Amino acid sequence: MSKIGQWEYAEPGVKRKVFQPGVGLMMMEVRFEKGAEGYEHSHIHEQMSYCIKGKISFRIAGKETIISEGETIYIPSNAKHGVTALEESILLDTFTPIREDLLK
């Protein structure tokens, strides 16, 4: 369970902080050490990720896309996706509807 506004480790070299959610929208900041991975997974939520710092390789439904500072990427509902940090990086992830799995 994520505690709102507190850092927690998600995977090795990956930590996240969930912000206070709205009614149907939520955000979290995710920080990656160089080479750290966000393991492949899927969820019903639509996701937009904004790269605050660094460079991240996204694998979405088998296709690789690299984004850098100031760029965004869209992840459709139920698409299998994972990431690898090509350098120390920070993402701002936004989800709709709310990721109840991160709050319980």
Automatic annotation (TrEMBL):
InterPro entries: Bacilysin_H2HPP_isomerase (IPR052535), Cupin_2 (IPR013096), KdgF (IPR025499), RmlC-like_jellyroll (IPR014710), RmlC_Cupin_sf (IPR011051). PANTHER family: H2HPP ISOMERASE. This is Cupin domain-containing protein. Pfam families: Cupin_2. Coiled coil: none annotated. Residues 29-87 form the Cupin type-2 domain.
